[in-house]
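Standup notes, structure subgroup. Blocker cleared on the glycyl-adenosine-5'-phosphate input:
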Amino acid sequence: MAAQPDVMDKLVSLCKRRGFIFQSSEIYGGAGSVWDYGPLGVELKRNIKDRWWNSMVRSRDDIEGLDAAILMHPKVWEASGHVSGFVDPLVDCKTCKGRFRADKLQDARCPQKPSKQPGQHDACQLTEARQFNLMFKTAMGPLEDSASIAYLRPETAQGIFVNFLNVQQSMRQKVPFGIAQIGKAFRNEITPGNFIFRTREFEQMEMQFFVEPGSDMEWFETWKEARLQWHLDLGLSRDRLNFHQHAGSELAHYARAAFDVEFDFGGTLGFQEIEGIHNRGDFDLTQHQQFSGKKLEYYDQLNNKRYIPYVIETSVGADRVTLAAMVNAYREEAVEGETEGRVVLGLHPSIAPIKVGVFPLTKKEGQPEFAKRVIGDLRSSFTVDYDESGSIGKRYRRQDEVGTPYCITVDGDSAGDDSVTVRDRDTLQQDRVNTSQLVGYLAQRLR
Ligand code: GAP
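Run returned:
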């Protein structure tokens, strides 16, 4: 299989230039590996989250939504194993003051001699590895004593586990059923990087599916396939997606089985995890039952039995999928009859931040007013962008670059025949459409 091109640098530049993603606190020199989503980025990520929420929660009877708080009782993190076990081995270099993950030295570069990995350059002085907990610690209330310790959650999953019975009983759900949520998570990563791929603040979309022990492997397979299909439906290419099975020491202590969905980001980054699918057995509910002293058993009325359900977890990063969608969509094309090519973000129409660009051909003859009337008709159904500056070619290029699937041009004939030209981003085909048919025409192609 041919290696995918490295488009990351071009994408980072496009994201800043076109309002997708900015470095956090840029005017102060930037906060390391923290990113802000601009006007187009926030639309793109929201569209991805909406697709996930619709497929998980709104289109099903057996999954409920939840929005648990970021701050939780500190005992939650003792029960989950994060206080003792959510650690990475850290080494410092006394020469360059760099910090590296001891288990990932092969992926790092010596800042003083980038052709070598840390420890291989003569001047390197690496310390012994020490365990570094990735949770951000803070204090609840005005006193910073040990009684007020709180953590920024490193995963959203625990908010679901501690609410298992609340949701099950209030919604009268029967096992098997799931709970889904989207929310921020925080990890003090030793080596964040690759743009929004690995950051210290990120968003997760997690779903915990509670099943009867014994049926877990069957559900695990079902969710594995369903999750792959979701990524395909989002427009990610099949040849850029892969399953990676966790085996041996890779398998977390609580996991009975685990697969990553990997996406090929191209260049040296290559295939990397975008989602984890785990069979967590009864580990989490058992731990919370023990640490809280509250029974977390499910009562199966039909069979008159009690048990702690097993959990199949699907956990996907909203930022990683956003990056994958952009990398997957980025392409540069020659344009017939033109010297300058075009950059296209061939995003799936459902996640494109702007669905329709509307342009008057000239600023005269009442064309801007006509275009604004068209926008008035479209705005309640689609995100629309009006543009009257520069040549029509330039305006098309600007929309192609941000992934707008359709552009509408108002011209000298529009007032007479009440029609406009609609141009397709990918095929470049142009159709003449009556304005009364526009909403239907676009809806059919966009939904
Ligand atoms: N509850 C299970 C869990 O959190 P994980 O494999 O640690 O599992 C799940 O994380 C997903 O969260 C990953 O596949 C990735 O998409 C995203 N993720 C994890 N750490 C991240 C980071 N530092 N930056 C961006 N996304 C991250």
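Discussed briefly. The chain has a mean pLDDT of 95.
Next: hand off to the docking folks.
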